[in-house]
UniProtKB/TrEMBL annotation, chain A:
<dbReference type="GO" id="GO:0005524">
    <property type="term" value="F:ATP binding"/>
</dbReference>
<dbReference type="Pfam" id="PF00005">
    <property type="entry name" value="ABC_tran"/>
</dbReference>
<dbReference type="InterPro" id="IPR003439">
    <property type="entry name" value="ABC_transporter-like_ATP-bd"/>
</dbReference>
<protein>
    <submittedName>
        <fullName>Peptide ABC transporter ATP-binding protein</fullName>
    </submittedName>
</protein>
<dbReference type="InterPro" id="IPR027417">
    <property type="entry name" value="P-loop_NTPase"/>
</dbReference>
<dbReference type="InterPro" id="IPR017871">
    <property type="entry name" value="ABC_transporter-like_CS"/>
</dbReference>
<feature type="domain" description="ABC transporter">
    <location>
        <begin position="4"/>
        <end position="228"/>
    </location>
</feature>
<dbReference type="InterPro" id="IPR017911">
    <property type="entry name" value="MacB-like_ATP-bd"/>
</dbReference>
<keyword id="KW-0067">ATP-binding</keyword>
From TrEMBL, chain B:
<feature type="domain" description="ABC3 transporter permease C-terminal">
    <location>
        <begin position="726"/>
        <end position="841"/>
    </location>
</feature>
<feature type="transmembrane region" description="Helical">
    <location>
        <begin position="721"/>
        <end position="742"/>
    </location>
</feature>
<feature type="domain" description="ABC3 transporter permease C-terminal">
    <location>
        <begin position="250"/>
        <end position="373"/>
    </location>
</feature>
<feature type="transmembrane region" description="Helical">
    <location>
        <begin position="775"/>
        <end position="796"/>
    </location>
</feature>
<keyword id="KW-0472">Membrane</keyword>
<feature type="transmembrane region" description="Helical">
    <location>
        <begin position="20"/>
        <end position="39"/>
    </location>
</feature>
<protein>
    <recommendedName>
        <fullName>ABC transporter permease</fullName>
    </recommendedName>
</protein>
<feature type="transmembrane region" description="Helical">
    <location>
        <begin position="418"/>
        <end position="438"/>
    </location>
</feature>
<feature type="transmembrane region" description="Helical">
    <location>
        <begin position="808"/>
        <end position="830"/>
    </location>
</feature>
Amino acid sequence: MNVISVDGLSRSYGKGSTLVQALKGVSFSIRQGEFVAVVGASGSGKSTLLHMLGGLDKPTGGHVHIDGEDLYGLKEKERAVFRRRKIGFIFQSYNLIPVLNVEENIQLPLLLDHRQPDKTYINDLIHTLGLDQRRKHLPSELSGGQQQRVAIGRALAYRPAIVLADEPTGNLDSANGREVLELLKLAVRQYHQTVIVISHDMNVAAEADRVLRLQDGLLISDTYGGKGE
Amino acid sequence: MKSYSSLAGRYLKQQRRKSILTVIGIILSVALISALGTMGQAMKDNMLSEAIYENGSYHFAYKEPTPDLYTKIKDHVLVERVGILREGVHTELPSGNQIQVDELDANAIQLLPIHLDKGRFPQSSNELVAEAWLLNQLPEKPQLGGFAELFSADGKKQRYEVVGIVKNQKYSQLEGKAHAFTMLTGDESAINARSTLFLTLKPGVDISIQIQPFSTLHTPFDTNRPVLNYLGESSDSNLNRALAIIFGTLIGLVVLSTVAVIYNSFNIAVLERIRQFGLLRTLGATPRQIRHLVFREASTLAVIGIPIGLLLGWGGLWLTLWLMTSSGFQILQMEDFHLTFHWWIIGGSMATALLAVYLAAWLPARKASGVSPVDAVRGAGSIVRESYRKNRFPSLLKLIGIEGSMASKNIRRNRAKFRITTFSIIVSITLFIVFHFFTQEAFKLTVNTNENDRIAFEVRQTVYSGDEANPNKTNDIVSPKTVKEIADMPGVYGVYGQYQWPNTQALVRHDDVDQSFLQKTELALDDVNWNGEGKKVVYSNLTLYDDARLKEAAKYLISGTADPDKLAAEDGVLIVQTVKPLVDGGRKREQMELTRYKVGDKLILMMGVTENPTKENVREVTVAGILNQSPFNAPYSEHSLTVMAVKPTFAKLLEAVAPEQDGIDYGTSLIGIEVALKDGADPEPIRQKLEDIANTVQAGRFIDYVSEQQKARNFALQMQIFVYGFLSVIGLIGSLNIINTVQTNLLLRRREIGLLQSVGMTMSQIRKMASAEGVWFGVIGSFWGLLLGAGISYFLHMQLSNVQGLPFAFPWGGALIACGIALAVGLLSVQGPLRRMAKANLIEELREEA
């Protein structure tokens, strides 16, 4: 079953002589439980694609369907609520809320929805992420790897349809980076999550079930387990 | 954490310093608004009580009424109470003074300004109340419970028992005429041509509307204008409208500055966290939820700040007044001052403050909720896009080198931030200038200050015109030695002589009469011909100034000299040519110039009662000094030129008065003395001494207004305390605003400053750059603040002119103070953040995400 289907997606910035076409009609679909890596050189349109998938930015053409819902057919507010419930984000720079502790940061998407968090699930998540001892710590009291684990926890808290990770290992050393990748793979296995990772890191691509390669705003290859489709 | 909205509280705690500054801003503003409201209302209440104290509480009066009229108004459905007064016949006293026993009914006692000091009011037609000073002059010298024989209202001698003593009144003492009051019996039968009816309307009746129908019932009809004015029921609504506009403008300015303070701190707090708001958006927070967060922060600050502000405003005022009363002051010249508590002021201040807080939080909230999540997640660095504007003119800042030119670029890099910063500085400066101007004007309007304030006692001699027994020159009332003795007594500030005032008119060249004076007053001055030239005849008050008076006069000099020797040597005189005539058909007074003399001009005086100038009655003197107001008596005359001469000059001028022309042989002898006291002096020994002197002088009178004098001085002092209290709070709010703006402007650029350091800018260069920015914001703010402040001051001045006209004086004082404070605060407020930056780790700063 397709969780994401992208159809003729394009995005351009500026106009006239400063017109930049970041995405030029990209189409693909992703099934539930896939671990997909999007790779490409700087400026190839990776981040733009991620923003489009996350409903953060508006495309200039094409459609994105997530869980059967046309993401850009929604109103601004509906899209925010959709994002809250269906999409988890992980950023290179962690982007935790500095005034909230580990547990609160993880629960935040649920709180924004005025929901009481499922204690067992959250505890399980914290345990899986190895943050049991750090529950009450503020982000400033954590190492980079720990912060990124909190960010993963936050992305998974709502059991979203998809998890989007933008260079999740970019700021980490190789040991911590590997650990984060393991956790993401675990999420795919244990919670049957769909994970899409953007990365320069070829290790990430090697771990993925499927690799989408972008160049100059075009999808130039789509490989499953190292084999082209 | 129960809900995402707890984030608001966390943010406030995290930014404790800024939150505290914002709360202080709210507290000060609320305190100011509520204190301003309370004080304004208290002033109005007090002016009303004062007006009632002086004029009585009646609304309308009818003179020469008929019994029919009395019945009609007594039964009138709108009338609450009617009082009758019947004037008596006066009785001449041996001292030359007069007493008149008026009859009053019980209602009139309530409605008229009669204030019992001791005893009780009369209950029958053979009891009376009188002023204490007068009782001593009656042949029987009765005390409370004593008896006096006086003419009754029907012209027969009657024996009265003194059952009460009413308070001494200055004017009755000066005029030598006093009223005593007895009980009126037999209502209607007492109503005749010597009666007056006084009435009040029932509460809730619109008095101003009833003036017209009541005036048609009978003439002469009169209204108690001062009281109706303060009740807001005058037919002439100018005063109330002016007061409403003035207080409205002032409160509006305070609100504006509150909005600026709070807006600034919110805006900065939001800008600092804009990435976090963006992040919340990526996590699925709706714009509404983000706005809600910002408003929740605002509400929290308001909930903390507003009650404290109200408490501080009301409590501060209460404490000030309490301290004043317990140290013996009488507040606002009132016998009994209560700070009236009005719910509408508390409610109004709260509503205004809440409005200001939400208004201030609205734009930042919108900005926070509108932040694009893409921008927020797009790596580190400031996400506020800045568009650098090229300067149209080369900035003066470039003169101080690279730091200056960096500063000038920094100032202009972001239009919105530039506007916010200058806006709040401008508001602060405007606020200070306008308040400074207004309080000074209000002070000038409510407090007449000259040397008369200090005069507590007078001893004078009655000089009768055409007194056959005394045809020749009067002698000095006391010798110079006695004057010196009094002057040397502890607590005496000065002893000033009183002399005779001969009739004097000035012959003024047409060009020397101020044209706008003639136009506005519509006064027709007589024309005469003197030495072949047409002159205008201007009434003048010529007085003799002794050395003691000249010493005080020197304080009021605008130009020239008040040196007695110089004046005597060149026949010089001092003049006051500023007057305060009635204009606008008698509706208000306006201060203006009567003539345009300069020091050194010749002044031609026509002496005595005469209409035609002749060689005999005209003398020429020189204008040696010009004063801005009279040092003694009324500061400004209505439309006369005030001329002050020293003894030799005065004597020469007297030679031109035709002998015994109006029955008086004018001379330069001392006919009375005025004694001024130092503040806080014990008046008792001086009173004793002067009373003794008065008793030894033939037809001598001792006048005691020490209590009135002390009240007047206290009032002036209190006004000053309030004025400077208000100004300090305003200055504090303004400074807070500037500190907030300039500091946050700098703190937001921590990372950038780290960057500048990393490329080799030294901390002292950065300090120079940042200081230049701070000062430059002060300069720009001062420039516009000055213009706006002067503009609004002029607007207030126009409103005040509806009450009383004063010339507009550009508010230089307030302007200089405000601009000085702005520059200093601008300069000082960058130093704290800079010191912190100097201590911080460069790498950390660079790493830090904006």
